[in-house]
Amino acid sequence: GAGVSQTPSNKVTEKGKYVELRCDPISGHTALYWYRQSLGQGPEFLIYFQGTGAADDSGLPNDRFFAVRPEGSVSTLKIQRTERGDSAVYLCASTSDFSHEQFFGPGTRLTVL
Amino acid sequence: AQKITQTQPGMFVQEKEAVTLDCTYDTSDQSYGLFWYKQPSSGEMIFLIYQGSYDEQNATEGRYSLNFQKARKSANLVISASQLGDSAMYFCAMRGTLDSNYQLIWGAGTKLIIKP
Questions:
Q1: Which of A8, A82, B53, B101 is exposed most, by the fewest CB atoms within 10 A?
Q2: How would residue B69 be classed by pLDDT, with cut points 50, 70 and 90?
């Protein structure tokens, strides 16, 4: 079966632009997480979905960041007016109700010039 | 607040030797889970091993074992008979309870380099 997929794998954009990062979780996984990993650091929690709703968005750094999961499967992380400090690898993970393990996608490396 | 501390930024180990990667944690939760993930240079996060706070025995998965000392709040990863392919970043992470939506709290990682 397919694992978690993320597109694009790399995204280079200019300061001030809008970007969308997509995550396709493992089929049937109800929980979906977004994390951000800056160079040389561990991941930091951004947002968690249980089904279609954002159950916890406490990790989003500011209101330029928004994420949706309209049908309870694919999720899109949206960043408005990107800043150079947004440059990082954005990781998506999904998990079933019956597993401890979060399965991670390969990440999207975002570079803001 | 939950916190994970990994005090070894980097380690060099000779191939075939065992290696211990340190992890200490802080939480006020009674129920929690501890994870180790491997992140090669390619970037994917690979699950290695899990230990639940109520598990009485230390977790083992092949060459990986977790030395869980609850009273000391430590969860060290032991890799036996290291291989060149073990060179990677290793992250310790803790999952909280339902109240924290099971999000993972991560340490800063340890970069492990296996020497031939």
A1: A8
A2: very high
